[in-house]
Write a structure and sequence with these properties.
single chain, 401 residues, 82% helix, Sporulation integral membrane protein YlbJ, transmembrane helix, membrane, Gate_dom, Spore_IM_YlbJ
């Protein structure tokens, strides 16, 4: 009976989506172009270097080296092996869904157990500083100082989620390794052993890193376009405003403006769209806006969650712990945003009134300049590496014939 209900539900959603596309072809096309531009200009060129670097570092044993060094930190705090430190740092630096990608690769290399991979996944999939400062604080909210509140709340909330999730699942018995006089010596031995176990030549390792990274990014692009269209269709058929009424009640209970309900609902599906809608509201007080933005940043949005679900589908990593952690992260980030708003934003504004304006402008525009440069060169980088991936795949097909 359960499977029958699931079949009917999936078929109904698919029919609804297809019918909506037929009814609103122009609007669906515009939403699709919007998602494509975001992927072409920002997502692909910003994530590709991190994905390739992560693949190479794992293949050459550097992650194993770092894992031994990070073990004294990661195991007591988050109850995961030291290799998880690499996924945590890379996830924060490069943004969604890098943490999920690296966690899956570590699981495939048997450097994590199933429970450890689920713990690691719960707190390594974070937003990038470029997105928080460049797109959100400067691009949408037009105030770089708000980026500090959002970033600290987001990353500190992420760490708190990791500490909470350390108690998830049964703790497996660890293999107690022989203690060496130096962590560095043991780390180097593990790195050397890992490199020797991978018999692929250097060119093959690099080629696989490029192809795997681009394949993942193409999948991510598909999800971005899909959810961009899906969110637009929900609004066009009038379903979004109806569901937003439920959120209005919740926001009023929490003491937040009811006008944020519709942008909040949109942000649950797609972060960028929700944040942009929130920034355009004429609601008094910026605190309410950044509290909602902090929540949807921590929640990741269904678009990012779908990307993660697709990445972990080929492994035994379960999605439920990750989803629970997203709710927890959104809650932590929102509370931290309220607590840190005064010391990191209001007090800082009063302190900097006597600062030199020219220096302030230069500091605040750095992230916007970086984002503008990325948008200019992004499409060229994307098209070039898609061509490289196509060439590599073509050569491999010729060799197999």
């Amino acid at each position: 009976m359960r499977q029958i209900i699931k079949t009917i539900s999936l078929a109904s959603i698919t029919i609804f989506f297809t019918s909506s596309l037929i009814i609103f072809p122009d609007q669906a096309f515009e939403a699709s172009i919007r998602g494509l531009n975001m992927w072409l200009e920002i997502v692909f060129p910003s994530l590709l270097p991190f994905f390739i670097a992560a693949e190479l570092l794992i293949g050459f044993g550097v992650v194993k080296f770092l894992g031994v060094l990070f073990e004294p930190i990661m195991r007591p705090l988050f109850n995961v092996p030291g290799a998880g430190g690499f996924a945590w740092v890379m996830g924060m630096a490069s943004g969604y869904p890098s943490g999920a990608k690296i966690s899956v690769r570590l699981r495939e290399k048997n450097q994590l157990s199933q429970i450890e991979a689920e713990r690691l996944l719960s707190f390594t999939n974070a937003s990038s500083p470029l997105f928080i400062f460049g797109a959100l604080s400067i691009g949408f909210l037009h105030d770089a100082k708000l980026g500090i509140v959002l970033a600290v709340s987001h990353y500190l909330g992420n760490a708190l989620v990791g500490i909470c999730m350390r108690f998830y699942g049964k703790t497996t018995k660890e293999n107690k390794e022989v203690k060496q006089k130096s962590y560095f010596i043991r780390a180097f031995k593990e790195m050397h052993k890992t490199r020797l176990e991978d018999t692929r030549p250097f060119g093959k390792v690099v080629g696989d890193a490029v192809v795997h990274s681009i394949q993942t990014l193409v999948m991510i692009g598909g999800f971005i376009i899909l959810f961009s269209v899906f969110t637009k269709l929900l609004f066009l058929i009038g379903l979004s405003p109806i569901i937003a009424k439920v959120f209005k009640v919740l926001l009023v209970i929490l003491g937040l403006p009811a006008d944020l309900a519709l942008p909040f609902f949109s942000g649950l599906f797609e972060i960028t769209l929700g944040a942009q809608m929130i920034s355009q509201l004429a609601t008094d007080g910026v605190l309410a806006k950044i509290v909602i933005i902090s929540f949807i940043l921590g929640f990741n949005g269904f678009s990012v969650q779908a990307q993660v679900a697709s990445i972990i589908a080929k492994t035994d990593i379960r999605f439920a712990p990750y989803f629970f952690a997203r709710l927890l992260h959104g809650l932590f980030a929102s509370i931290l945003c309220i607590l840190l708003f005064k010391p990191l934003y209001l007090n800082r504004q009063a302190f900097e009134r006597e600062d030199i304006p020219v220096l302030q402008d230069v500091h605040e525009n750095n992230w916007q300049i970086a984002l503008d440069i990325l948008k200019q060169i992004g499409p060229v980088v994307t098209i070039f590496f898609l061509g490289v991936a196509g060439f590599l795949l073509y050569k491999r097909q010729l060799k197999t014939k």
